Structure formats: C-alpha cells, structure tokens
Amino acid sequence: MAITAQDVNKLRQMTGAGMMDCKKALQEADGDFDKAVDILRKQGQKVAAKRADNAVSEGTVLINISEDGTNGKLVALACETEPVSNVEDFKNLAQSILDKAVADNIADKDALLAATLADGRPVSEHMIELTGKLGEKLEISAYENVSADKVVPYIHSNGKLGVLVAFAGVNGTDVAELGKDVAMQIAAMKPVALDKDGIDAATIEREIEVGKEQARAEGKPEAMLEKIAQGKLQKFYKDSTLLNQEFVKDSSLTIRQLLEKTSKGLTVTTFKRVAIGG
User: Fold this and answer.
1) How far, rounded to the nearest angstrom, does the alpha carbon of residue 173 sit from its chain's CA centroid?
2) What is the four-CA torsion angle of 83, 85, 88, 94, rounded to 10 degrees?
3) Selection from 98, 264, 271 nearest residue 181 by Cα
4) How are the residues of the chain apportioned to helix, strand and coil, as percentages rounded to the nearest 5?
C-alpha cells in the first residue's frame, strides 16, 4: 500500500524515530502502525547488540532527596557522546527513571531496569528503544538508594558527577552547609572508603608491597622496609579514607574532627560518589 507523508509523520510522533526509519518500517509492515512500532523496537535491539561493547563516557547524573531529607536516590544514565546526553529524549528518560525509583522506593539497579514506566513497559525496553532512535549505547551506570538521619546531595556543574552523603547523630543540627562541604570534598578528593576498616585486605597488602618496593628502590636497608611501608600505609589511610582526610577548607582539621567540632556525635555513616566517564 502507499505510505503517505502523514503516515510517516504520525509514526514519527508516536516513536520519535527518524523520518526514513519510520517510512521503511511502515513499508515493511504494509501500513500497520502496531507492526511498524514493533519493527522500530527490534531495530533498537539490533543497534544495542552492535554497540554492546562501546564505552559510555557521557551522560547525566540526577538526584532526588526526600522531603524530610532522610533518603537520597541517585541515577546515572550514560551514553557514548556529549551531544546525545543533551538530547531532550535522553534527559526525559533519565528523569522518568529517577521518578520511578522514587515512586516505588526501588532497591537496586536490577529492580530499576525491570520496573515499568507509565506505558507499562520496563525501563530496559525504553532504553533499547531509545538506543535505536539515537544510535548509541545507553546504560544505567549507577543507581544508589541511601537512607540516614540526614542525606545531603551534591551534583558537579558538568552534570556527570554526583555525591550522596549520609549523616548520623544529627540531633537537630542543620548540616546542609557542612554536608555540601563534605560532599564537595568527596567529589574532589575521591576517598575509597569511609575509614580504615573499610579498606579491604587485598588493597592493604598491595599498598604495603608498593611501599616496600619504593623504599627498596631508594636504597633503604631490608630491615627497614616493613617499618617504612607501614608509614606509607598510614599516609594512604590519611589520603584515601574520608574521615581521616584533611578538610580542604581547613587543613588543621580532619573530616572526623570537623564533624565532631560541628556537633558532638555527628558522623558520616556512608557516602556514594558516582562519576560518568571516570
């Protein structure tokens, strides 16, 4: 049957796919709109399969904090290139995914991918469909759901880096400004754990071995290597664990001391740092 420009435009409005893709799908479906939509979705699956190994280093990070400030949810939707991350359909999908996570208090990424949006189709299917339209791999690179006495967010100006900081022992203290300072510290200084006991044994062993090799290369006596390596390990703790890091705004205080100075018993119970592309 003849495919009119009005038919093509109608399918384009329904799916957001390109004009030529819509025309080809309608021709293949003999003008049946439902079949044409299915064809376009399958095209999205084919594109997704072809680009499965591609790196996703662009995208957007979105955060929602509950009204009482006790829960924070973070979604990172990643794509391959910056232009795609600025497309309205991409932004809308990211927001829809976050809205669903908030509405259903979704626990983890797998559950989020399986969750259904307003049209009854799962998030994963929406992502495949948009992949077909935009021609790029899409991926939920991270999803975090954090609850605490108070959760404070931070999103970097590039929109690709987000932080959630969970505080305990708040006891009525307004931690908004402090929380932002701590979140920005996490964003900039990239701690790998909250405290020393959060560092796994394999990392500790590796740091000790690296410390020994560095000392050996400097010509230090073998008998001194273990002591020197232990000293370097303590510096690693200071540089790489949040509570032991120097506060970037006042190097006379560690983050632990800053929290205690602000309010006795105030501490951070966990943090999440999510960066798209590194």
Assistant:
1) 28
2) 170
3) 271
4) 50, 20, 25
Specify the residue for token string 């259903």.
104
pLDDT tens-place string over residues 116-137: 999 998 999 899 888 888 888 8
Alpha carbon distance 190, 232 (integer Å)? 18
What does the buried/exposed string (b/e) look like for 23-59 if buried means 16 or more CB atoms within 10 Å of the residue's CB? bbbbbebeeeeeebbebbbebbeebbeebeeeebbbb
| Residue that is written with structure tokens 């299915």 in the block | 38
Q: Go through 198-215 and write b for each residue having 16 or more CB atoms within 10 A of its CB, e for each that does not.
A: ebeeeeeeebbeebbeeb
- What average pLDDT does this structure show over 170-179? 95
pLDDT per residue as tens digits for the range 147-165: 999 999 999 999 999 999 9
Q: Of 105, 121, 127, 124, whose CA–CA distance to 113 is shortest?
A: 124
State CA 50 to chain mean position distance: 24
Listed in sequence order, the DSSP H helices in the chain are: 5-15, 19-28, 33-50, 82-85, 88-104, 109-114, 123-134, 176-189, 201-217, 222-240, 255-262
Rounded Cα–Cα distance for residues 44 and 23 (Å): 16
